[in-house]
Structure formats: structure tokens, C-alpha cells
Amino acid sequence: xxxxLKIRDLTLRDxxxxxxxxxxxxxxxxxxxxxxxxxxxxxxEVWGGxxxxxxxxxxDESPWTRLRTIHDAIGNVSLLSALSRGRNLFxxxxxxxxxxEGFYKEAIANGLNVMRIFDALNDIDNVKSSIRMINxxxxxxxxxxxxxxxxxxxxxxxxxxxGRLFGKKDKAPEKIFTDxxxxxxxVAMEKLGAKIxxxxxxxxxxxxxxxxxxxxxxxxxxxxxxxxxxxxxxGYGLASSVMAILSGVxxxxxxxxxxxxxxxxxxxxxxxxxxKKLGVEIDVNMEAVGNIRNALYDVRRSLAQFDLQKDNxxxxxxxxxxxxxxxxxELFDKAIEAAKNFDQESLLDYCHKIEAYFNFPKPxxxxxxxxxxxxxxxxxxxxxxxxxxxxxLEDAMRLIPKVRRDAGLVPLVxxxxxxxxxxxxxxxxxxxxxxxxxxxxxxxxxxxxxxxYGHTPVEIDPEFRAKITGDATERPYDVNSYKQPENPAxxxxxxxxxxxxxxxxLLLELLPTVAKTFLRRRRQEEFDAANAAKAAEVExxxxxxxxxxxxxxxxxxxxxxxxxxxxxxxxGDEVKPGQLLLVYEAMKMENDVEAEKAAKVRQVFVVPxxxxxxxxxxxxxxx
Length: 623
Prior knowledge:
Helix content is 44%, strand content 14%. The protein folds into four domains: 4-150 and 178-310 and 324-367, Aldolase class I (TIM Barrel), CATH 3.20.20; 372-481, Cyclin A, domain 1, CATH 1.10.472; 489-543, no CATH class; 549-621, CATH 2.40.50.100. With 623 residues, it is α/β, with parallel strands linked by helices. It contains 22 helices and 19 strands.
């Protein structure tokens, strides 16, 4: 019996976030959902990460609508997953358990099944509450161990003064991020209740041999399914995914063709070819995947302004219908042979040739050499450009290992990658100006060193902490200091509160700046719609009014404004004293209007549902 490989499709979340800045609108997603239902992926990642922020900030859409709409279309065919930064949720600061629980509860109620939970420091304390809550609320807790590497030795610090003086090399720094480090984190997470363990390689730095060794050890150490998540940025993604399959991984994260490769995860179509040759069954309807692929081509074209490869698409390819040239087909066979022989160099060479044939982006050599996430590198370039100090990029890159070691050897993943990168730039500027190191420190770096982001993999030197924060003692973030954002009444919009339900209040807590703008637009739309409805109602009342003749007889008028509920007489009727003529609502009460004396009705000026004002004519009697 063939081994079955389950697939988590990342296209609608991580795929578009990695390649197109999370700009896919709901209208495009809606077109794809019927096709996704037929594909029957094991898991679809559709939410979390940058989605809640981006869809409000750039698309003026509700994150809750996105999740609910996808669930309504997919049902229980595929599990829907989101990415959470543990105690930071989808934001950038720690939140108390009350906020975590409120968000998770609402997410699961709106169709979420799997919450992938990670922490930038791999601090178990930062994920344990989320794992417990997701399980208690009926979801599936997927705990992710963030992959990172030990920094390369700094060129200026390979030998101490005495080492150089006596010709001896200093002892190399102890390796921290060994296979055992990642496995121990995974075991601890499983003990806390994790139902899936993910090796999360956000920067694409897992080499094929590391993928083989870590995945193999994870499979031996935990009893829950193991998932592998990587990116192709530095050129390892496809080859490492092949090694993960050979090493028994249960779930593999992929994207669909036009949203795969480059800075995203590998394309499922290439994984399908490898799996078929390995005798591994992909648990997906590939014909339906082909239909999604065809639709995604136009979606990608619509996102051209955010696409760095908009003029250099991969060639179109259908693994079910197209025949590969013999020499390309042979590349797949040679790659598999190299993988089985643990020949990493040859495996990478064959996989790069495969990707080149299909015109996927080449490996990013800068990211590969620096061993940092692509987003971190681009942020550093942007920071230096804004300071008109682009010439310091090489110096800043060389200083990353020092900043990492000083700050407790933190992994490079959001938000610590941005914090370390920015501080390396500051350090390069300090040295250029002849100032001592860390003369200029960001608030985020101070918080990281203080301990507010959690426990670092290596303890920070108390003297360094005192230098940066003014106190040698580690001080974790005090969640009791959390202040719930204000939910003000909008006086200019009729006094309505900014957030009118629990979902909106949660958005306000999570992303207050973005949510304020987004929610105010919703209240403005509702205010404008209500005013338009009132104006239309007045116009309708005028149109519905009965055509009348000139008044010549006594008239019964409305004692106060209101809405007519019923009219019990018509022209020509003879009425008696005390007879009910009509009923109207005013001041939240029903009011009976009765005849004061015997008379004959000449005209009726109103109809049911008509809004009337004080002293408006109701009925005219014969003179």
C-alpha cells in the first residue's frame, strides 16, 4: 500500500502573502471556492498571519467575512487553518488570556478548524495558553517549532587578543540550534496538547540534509502528525520537501503553480511528480487542482502591481496532461536518486535545473549567504535607503550575528527578525559615527532584551541587559498592564459606538490603529444608508398619499405625528359617534381615532404605513 501524503494548501494565505503582499480581494477568492471544494485538500490555510491587518488596511474588507465566507463555501470538506503568533495572536504585542480566548472562540465559531501557533523565540510559555484554549474550544492545536540556524562567526571575533598573540584559536561558540533543540521543543508542545507538530521554516533555510535529520527525529519522538513548512527563497525549498517526504513527513505545505516557488512554498504540481515517482499518493483531487490553477492565472495577472515577477511567469504546465521532455523527466529521477544517497549538492543542482526549466525564480543568493529571511533583508535595505546610508548594508549584514548573540540568540522570524535587522543597522551607523555600540537602540530592542517578548534561547548577559535597559533583571511583559482600547461613541454619526459587536471589538483590541479607520468607514456607510432610507421613506409617503379634492367640509387632523397602521373607512361611508375611523402609532403607542359625531366621509387623505406629521389631515366629512 502506497504511503499517503496529506497537503496543506497555502495559496489563499501564505502564498499570496509571500508573493503579492496579501492583496487578493474577496471577490477573487469567491470565484475559486467552488473549485477548492472539489480539490479536497486536507487543510487549507486561509486566515491569520497578515490577513486580518491587510484586508482591513488595503482592501477595506472584514477579516471575519473572509473566514466565514470560505467556511460557508468549503463546509467540512477541508479543514481551515490560520497562523497565530501565540501570545501575540496576529498582532505585535502580548495579549492577556481574555483576549486570546475571545479571538479563538470567535474564530472557531466562524469556521476555523486548525490554529497553527508559533512563537518567535520558541518560548514554550508563550504558546501553552493558546494550545490549551484551542483544544478546549473544539479546534485543532497545531504547534509550530520555528527553524533557525546558529549565526556565522563574526570575522572580527574569531580569535581573542590572547588567542592571536599566542597563535591559538578560541573555542568556537557552542551550537544551540541542533536537531535535539527542535525535537525537544516539539515534544514539550505535544505534552501540552498539540495535535499536529509543524517544523516551520519561514526563511527557507532548512537544507535537504537538515530536513531529513530533523523530520526523522520528529517522527520518532512524537506520536502526532508532523507537518513541514518551508519557502523556496534561498533555493532549498523543493529539494528539502523531497527529503521530508522520504523521511516520512505526514503533511506538506504547498502552493498551486502560479502562487508557488520564489519566496513562497513549492508548487504542488512539482511535488506531485516527485511523489508519483516515489510511490507516494497525494491525497488531493489533482484534476480540481488543475481547474484552480487555470483560474489563478488571471488572478495573478490582476495582482501585477504587487508581483515582482509580473513579466516572468513560470511556463504553463499540467502534470496530468503534459508530457515532460525526456531530459527533464530524467532530472526528477536523478534528484530522487541523489536524495536517497543523501547527496545534497547533486539534489540541489537537479532541483534548481527543474525549477529553471519551468521558469520559477532563481535562488536568492543574498538571503542564502546571509541566512536571514527575505523580508528582513528587504526591511534593512529600506531602512538604510531612508537614512541615505545604503553603503552600510554590507556592514549591517555582518553585524547581525553579534546582535543576535547579544540579544539571546533569538530566531529570525516576525517580529524578532525585524527587531534584530533594525538594530544591526543602528549598530553600523554607531560605528560609522565613531560612537560606542548600542548608542542608538530601538524601543523594540529594549523590550526584547528586557524580557518582554519572552525567554530567549540563550540567557542574556545581565551586564548587557543593564546597559540596554538600565536593569540587569529579566522582566517579562506584565499582561495585567494591558489596557483595552477605547470604543468611543461617534457623536457626528448619531452617537453610535465605533465597534458595535464582539467581532469588531476584537479587531479593535488586536489592531487598534487599522481597525479604527476600518470601523469608522462601516459606521459612516450605515449612517449614510439610514439617512437615505429616511429620505426615501418620506418620498414614498408623498407618492403613496391619496389623490385629493379641494377641502370644503370639516377635517379630522392628526393630534401628533406618527405612522398610520390601519384605515377603517372609505369615501361615502356613514359613521356614527364613537366609531373607529383609523389607528396610528405615535410615541411607541397605538392610538385609536374615533368619530366625534354622525357624519358622511367625503375624503380619506392617508393609507396604511404612511408616515404623517402633527396636524396632518386624515379624513374630511361632507359639509
